[in-house]
Structure formats: structure tokens, C-alpha cells
Amino acid sequence: MKSVKSNEWKTYTQAVQEGKYDLYVGNLFGKYDNVRTYWEDQLTRIVLRPFLKNLTENKRSQEQGVRIVDLGCGAGQGYDILTKIDYRDLDLGLQHKRVLPYEDISLFLGLDISQAMVEKGKSLFGEQAKVQFQEADLSQGLGEIKNTESAFDLYFSSYGSLSHLARKDLVTLLEDVCHHGNNGSLVVMDLIGRYSIEWPDFWHAQSEEEKVREYNMGYLYSESVRKTTDIESFPLRFWTGEEVRELAQEITTKTGVKLEVVKLVDRSILVGRHTDTRSFNPQLKPTRRLINCLHEDYMRTNLDELILDASIFPEHRFITPLLKDLIKSWNILIEFTQHRLTHNFSLPDVTGWDEFPKPLQFALMTIDRVIADVGWMWYGDPRANIIEPQLGYALRTLEYEMQRGWGCGHGLIVVMKIQKD
Ligand SMILES: C[S@@+](CC[C@H](N)C(=O)[O-])C[C@H]1O[C@@H](n2cnc3c(N)ncnc32)[C@H](O)[C@@H]1O
Hints:
Strands 1, 2, 3, 4, 5, 6, 7, 8 and 9 form a nine-stranded mixed sheet that branches. The chain folds into two domains: 278 residues, Rossmann fold; 103 residues, no CATH class. The longest helix has 28 residues. α12 packs antiparallel against α14. By secondary structure, the chain is an alpha/beta fold. The site of S-adenosylmethionine has 20 residues, from α3.
């Protein structure tokens, strides 16, 4: 694997050329696999929903639209994430009611260093006048838009873009954002988590040098392509929740503008991209591929393979206990589903189930009801098409409810607020 400098990367240009950034929903592997679509994009939306609801309602009351800048926008995935946030989860009507529809946006400006990405973004979304894309190198701060654009209501970033920046460059960018933003503007970052099970070797990094590691996007390719191709690697900065809080404090001190961390969420703790490639931790099971299979039509998943072993991880003061608790609940839910599918057995038969952690109880109740309500159906393939996707959502919710925002997921979602008096 060869390492290259940021201005020479081919990964993104090549990925765009190969169609990996075309809009696509669901798959067993690749950029838009089922986990990205049904777990990661949806969880990002759930996390952002209350903040964007507030923001949009405020702007509406002032008869103004929302101004958004997407930092490291790729081919405009952020636009798709933000404009498809539903008001409520449980809504069976024909039309979605969105929190931030196109009509409420006055500008969505995507910035990215890659010309190929900017062109792809324009071709996918550029017909809409309020959606624009520009090339920009964010390692130099906000650049010329500081002078050409008025304040944004949302400084947004999705899926690791800002982990491409060295810490000192992220400091410069956030200083610019704090000076440029309004009182109440939101700043959303999506960083790569250092405490992920994908790379236990990184957990104990101390110096700044050790927190920046070589990374690759081998997951864009099938296993056979990975074996025969020399996949490019590049440096990324891996973050913990605590470091993000320190960073925000440092920006506040430097700028005199309060940057408050209002939410930190670990996303994809057990299903990170590299659980399948095992590039950084060969001991892992290919959990992501199995979850992708749960969400795939007419494909039945061997649930035995989803049982995980918490003892393979090194000892760490607070990560190991969290992983043990989560994996214990995860395994109980899978074993229950397996047993429930093949035996005359239901939740009250499980001894002590009402003393399990609340998120697990809720997940068990959901699966118990789904199987009871669906088991009699004869159209289609109820196990593959209804029960397994519901198990996928139950596992997703379990992970979300038990996460602590420490940097233990593949992604660390950060929501911050600018406060100017
Ligand atoms: C993992 S992709 C994420 C793309 C998109 N935000 C998404 O949600 O899928 C990271 C993006 O960051 C961009 N990027 C990396 N370094 C950058 C820099 N210094 N300035 C601007 N964009 C950068 C890359 O070109 C790439 O499009």
C-alpha cells in the first residue's frame, strides 16, 4: 500500500469515474451499501432532526431561508441527507413531511478540494439554482467565501471530510467559521472515531503524530479487487469525544466566540466500514456484510454468524466495558430472534428479560411482535423481506441507544453551536 500527499490523491477522482458516487440506494458492499443507507444516513438524520427543526422554524418565522455550506461536500451527499429528514418516524401517509425541504433553503453551497467531486455534484444537483458547488481547499480555512458570502446558518460536514485535515488546520477552519457565523449558527462535523473496534492499535495514541494514521478506502471495492489492486492510502486524523470538547474550548479561547458542543454521537460501533475489509484488525468478523444482508430483499442471513465475541478486544479502561455491554445485548437479541423463528417460544419465556437494559427490552419486544404478526404471511419471503430488516433496525437502535459519543464508532457526529452576544 503506498501513501501519497493530499494534492496527488487518486482515490476520489477514480471513485467518481467508476460511478461510485452516482446516486444509488442499497447494496451488499461499496459506497452506498445498505448500512450506509439504512443505518448511517438515517441515524445522522435522527441526530440532526431536532436541531434543524428549530433552525428552520426560526428562519421561517423571520421569513428567511436557511443558508448552508457543506465542507468537503463530495458529490453533494450532504444535500441528500439534509433534505430527507422526516418530521416524525412513525408516519404512514403518502407524502413525507420534511424538516428542511428545498423551499426552505436559500443557499446550499458545497465546497470540496476534488474537481471530480465538484463536477459530479453539479451534474447530480446543480440544476437547482439554490444548490451550488465550488472547489476549495479547507486546509487553508474558509478562504474567499469569507469575503464573498454572508454568514451561514449551518456549517455542515458529513462522513469523515474534516478528518482529512490536520488538527492545526481544523483549528484554523473553525476559527474562520466562528468569526463568519451568526449567533445561533450550527456547526456539524463528522469525524473518524479513534476508539473504533476497527483499529484497536490506535486506541492508545498519545502524541499528535500518533493520532494521524494512514487510511484507505478499500471498502469501495470487492474482496477480489482488493486482493489484486494496490489501494491508495492517505493520512487521516482520528478523534475522540474528549478531544473534540478540548478543541471547541480552544477555539472559544482563541476567538472569544463561544463554540458549544451540544451533541456527540458514535455512529457504527460494530458495523464500521473496515469490519469487512479487516485491513486494520484481522480478528474482526465481517459484521457489516452480514447487516447488509439483513437489509437485502430475498436474501436470508445466517444469524449464527452475527454472534460477536467481546473478548477479542484489548483491555481499555472505559472502551472495553462499553463494548462488553453492547455486545452482550447484541448477542441476546440475535439469539432470541433465532430461537423465536424456530420454536414455539415468546418473550415472556425468557427468564429475567424485564431486568435487561431498557434499549434491549425494547428491541426484544419489537422483534417478538414482528415475528408474531408476520409469521403467518405467505406472500413474498417474510423472513428475508420483513423480519430480517426489522432485526437490522432493532440492532441499529440498540447501538444508538447504548453509544456514549466517546469516539468508539467508525464515525463521530459532532453538533456545535456558535454563541455571540
Ligand atoms: C469521505 S468523502 C465524504 C464526502 C461527502 N461529504 C459524503 O458525505 O459522502 C471526503 C471528502 O473530503 C474532501 N476533502 C479532503 N480534503 C479536503 C480539503 N483539504 N478541502 C476540501 N475538501 C477536502 C474529499 O475530496 C472528499 O470528497
